[in-house]
Structures are given as structure tokens and as C-alpha cells.
Amino acid sequence: MGDMIEKTLIMDQQAIRRAVIRVAHEIVEKNKGITNLVLIGIRTRGLPLARRLAEEIRKIEGSDVPVGVLDITLYRDDLSTLSYQPIVHGTQIPVDLNDKTVVLVDDVLYTGRTVRAALDAIMDLGRPQAIQLAVLVDRGHRELPIRADFVGKNVPTSHREIISVQLSDVDDNEKVIIAELAD
User: Side by side, which strands form the sheet with 175-181?
Assistant: First the structure.
């Protein structure tokens, strides 16, 4: 991939924090509490977001929500473009998913293909009562009929642009930027 040129700061650390708090409240409200709720972060940046949501939900409800992680490297239908030797991290889901409400958490919703792969992976693990989707950024350009139930921020983008989510748990920074590929 070519060099990226940073163009626009979309969310700073405070905006990310506020979005996580708001989405946590929306999740609790939509599900009328946290009974049978499980958060599953899609590796890599979905996991710290899921953990942050769980922490905010604990502040709201006073009890913990289980958090799992899903690695969908083997499920992706665009595997050939990612790597010649896919690395399998594991999938760690702390509870049985049958009859649970699963909230999938990812950083950016774009074509919908990652989410479709995650749905396949979850269905291999159990039969949840419902699956919802929470994303920090929805950038549009869907190729599949998938939409997020909870969105931190909608950011219209062009195909040339890249949304870069940087979280302190993974990266050196805490921000969301739009970048463009250099020619």
C-alpha cells in the first residue's frame, strides 16, 4: 500500500470517549438492560472498543458484561488480498452464545464484508437470540445489506480516502483521521 497523507482529523480523544459513552447508553437502552448481553470485539481495534463499552456499561448498570474477541482472518472472502500466509489468532468467547444478545464491535464499517465474515464465525459458535452491530465510524460505501445498530460517527468518504482509527490500546495515538493514498 502506498503512503498515506493525513487530511482531516475527524475525532480526537475526547470525541472518541464521548462516542463510546453514548453508544454504551444506547446499547443498554435498546436492550432494556444487560441481561444475556455479550460484547464481541472484532480484532484488532474492535476489541479495545468492546472493552471500553463494557467498562461504560458497568458504570451505568453496576455489573459486568462479558467481552469476547473474534478473529475472522480465515473467514474473510478477500483473504488473497490480505496475506499469503494468514495468521490465526484465536477466537476467545467467554460464554455460550446460545440465546444471548451479541453486540459485535468494530472500529470502521465500510463494505460490510468484515461484518458478514464475523456473522459467519458467530453462527459457527452458537445460535444467539440477536446480533447487533456497534461501530465507531460508519464511512458508507456498503457492498452488502448490512447496517450498524450503534454508530459513534457517520463520516461520508470517497473510495480514495482511508479512515484511520488509532486507539491508545493498540497505537501511539488516540484519534480518527481521514487520509488519502499518495499517488
Answer: 4-11, 175-181, 161-166
pLDDT digits (tens, 9 = 90+) for 11-22: 999 999 999 999
Widest Cα–Cα separation across the chain: 51
Question: pLDDT tens-digit profile of 124-147?
Answer: 889 999 999 999 999 999 989 999
CATH of domain 4-181: 3.40.50.2020
Confidence band (pLDDT; 50, 70, 90) for 84? very low
User: Is the CA virtual torsion 33, 119, 92, 167 positive or negative?
Assistant: negative
Task: Tell me the one-letter amino acid at 83.
Answer: S
Please state the three-class secondary structure of the chain as a single string.
Answer: CCCEEEEEEEECHHHHHHHHHHHHHHHHHHCCCCCCEEEEEECCCHHHHHHHHHHHHHHHHCCCCCEEEECCCCCCCCHHHHCCCCCCCCCECCCCCCCCEEEEEEEEECCCHHHHHHHHHHHHHCCCCEEEEEEEEECCCCCCCCCCCEEEEECCCCCCEEEEEECCCCCCCCEEEEEEECC
Domain ranges of the chain: 4-181
CA-atom Rg of the chain in angstroms: 16
Distance CA(143)–CA(111), nearest Å, equals 5
